[in-house]
Amino acid sequence: MTCDEIRAMYTVYIERVADFARKEYLRTLSYRVQETPLEEQSEDTLALVEDRYFPGEFDLAEGRLSRAMNDLPLLRHQVLILVFIEKLPAQEISERLGCSVSYVYKQKCLALQKLKETRESDDREQ
User: Fold this and answer.
1) The domain spanning residue 93 has which CATH number?
2) Which domain holds residue 6?
3) Is residue 6 part of a domain?
4) Is the Cβ–Cβ distance between 97 and 78 less than 8 Å?
5) Of 1, 19, 61, 103, which has the fewest CB atoms closer than 10 Å, so is most exposed?
């Protein structure tokens, strides 16, 4: 096989791949939902959506979690921040806080247990 024949076969292959990719792209375009940024929506439209889909008091789970986190003792709050936000290992957290590694694990466990209890009590109230 000559170099020109290989080049011709490769060109045909690339053209077929490009054609398939174009068709696939156009096919997925037809399934996309028309989106409009919230900033471009009128206040009336947003009010209608809120009244229809979120009747009554609307409380985000993030807000409940934030309130529950603020109710934790300071040390437990710090441990959760260091574990889940800063992604520090227990050894480093214990060095920062001046306590043992097992104490860090215990505080993490107690904090998560308290957050779980708070979530369950909120769920029962709703």
Assistant:
1) 1.10.10.10
2) 1-34
3) yes
4) yes
5) 1
pLDDT at 26: 78
Q: Is 87 left (phi over 0), alpha (psi -120 to 50) or beta?
A: left
84: Cα separation from own chain's centroid:
13
> Which amino acid is it at 10?
Y
Q: State whether residue 84 is helix, strand or coil.
A: helix
72 within 8 A of 109, measured Cβ to Cβ? no
Residues 26 and 80 in one domain: no
Question: How large is the average pLDDT for residues 36-61?
Answer: 65
20 domain-assigned: yes
Residues in Cβ contact with 74 at an 8 Å cutoff, skipping those fewer than 6 apart: none
CA–CA distance, 89 with 101 (Å, rounded to integer): 9
**Does 82 score more than 70 pLDDT?**
yes
For residue 39, give both structure tokens.
Answer: 């900033």
Identify whether 50 is part of a domain: no
pLDDT mean across residues, the chain: 81
